[in-house]
């Protein structure tokens, strides 16, 4: 999914106008959000749940959100935070933590479609590194944009991406490629700077 | 090596993964229905008076504001605070420069005009066998105070464990490793953060309640995420709200519940680290009654950096 053209901008209209605008926005963005969420979660059911939850949050604040300079960026941030929130909620026990959650990864629902080596490898990355890979290499965001989504510095994005790629390069399941098949491996790229 | 081409190759490889998806119809009706419910709850929170809001900015107010209890903020090894002779002072009177009646930034989702009152409740003692702090763990008292005559401390616990194992909990065979192995291959780290009541050594169980974040050493020690591990822990008639923020970006945290809020509370920094911590103690009825709350993060200039809703706006819907 390449960047999609900018989103709904404010049209000083009624609530009905805002609802119609949101409906159009959601219809256009739903497939892309689910795909991104799938790469973040590795599970289509979870992906749809995360995308739906994110859009619910967006709709609840739509009259404010629609005035944002970049609605898509806002929604993307909500999506990533909603996914991260799945971990946070698991870390909010009412009493003592008996079995601490390991944020390095998570297992998707069982019985879902067979996973590729690439998805398996992505699943071994820490959540933040995985988000960096998805935003940087799937959404094609610049380091600056990824930093804005994740609420961190560009330097952190750069280092997280470098670590993630280094790990993918050495993942035995990928065999130096990205799951296109043995005969047509996709090399793990080294970092490039914005604008390259 | 052609980086651009490789970038595109990875993009294409990721694209292959999502090509297999069969995208269902967008659940527009459910989204709008739940979103509308969220709006209604917000409206209710704003208009229902929240008179029952017996609230509370916390003891942390005094600590964070640099008031009394000075030596209790962000310093030293935890054990230094254990059984401290001087009771960490606590005042329910906010000492921060901004009065809690001051409106928050216009960019805040709500504009609390009433202060959150001091909590009247207390925390129930946790039950269970007493387990001494883990000798391998690095405990630090981030903040402390006294509430309704009871001593509390916000305790941070960092430890290392074999990454292929589940980190042991108190009472289980201990697999925590010496701090000297922090960041070594084959290890992972955790940071637990929670309020501990009473005067036993920090990290003593079951006194300590410690939601935790685990991952690589870099993840745990940061820098990175703006807000990490915001937790809501309920016990007795109190709710504890605590978490870690990126101290290079965030200077204060404000708690807003319905139309009430605290003054911006300076975060507590740990010397030599980028992160800072916040903690609020609230009567349980406050959060339970409103159903949700928000934390407004501001930089040193008072600009809103972010507004977070740790529970998520659809929680409970």
Automatic annotation (TrEMBL), chain A:
InterPro entries: RNA_pol_sigma-70-like (IPR039425), RNA_pol_sigma-70_dom (IPR014284), RNA_pol_sigma-E_actinobac (IPR014325), RNA_pol_sigma70_r2 (IPR007627), RNA_pol_sigma70_r4_t2 (IPR013249), RNA_pol_sigma_r2 (IPR013325), RNA_pol_sigma_r3/r4-like (IPR013324), WH-like_DNA-bd_sf (IPR036388). Residues 176-196 are annotated as: Disordered. The keyword Transcription regulation applies. Residues 31-91 form the RNA polymerase sigma-70 region domain. Gene3D superfamilies: 1.10.1740.10, Winged helix-like DNA-binding domain superfamily/Winged helix DNA-binding domain. Residues 117-168 form the RNA polymerase sigma factor 70 region 4 type domain. Keywords: DNA-binding, Sigma factor, Transcription, Transcription regulation. It holds the Pfam family Sigma70_r4_2. The keyword Cytoplasm does not apply. Belongs to the sigma-70 factor family. ECF subfamily. This is SigE family RNA polymerase sigma factor. It comes from Catenulispora subtropica. The lineage of its organism: Bacteria, Bacillati, Actinomycetota, Actinomycetes, Catenulisporales.
Automatic annotation (TrEMBL), chain B:
The chain crosses the membrane at residues 44-65. Keywords: Membrane, Transmembrane, Transmembrane helix. Residues 78-115 have a biased composition (Low complexity). Residues 70-137, 162-187 are annotated as: Disordered. This is Uncharacterized protein. It comes from Catenulispora subtropica.
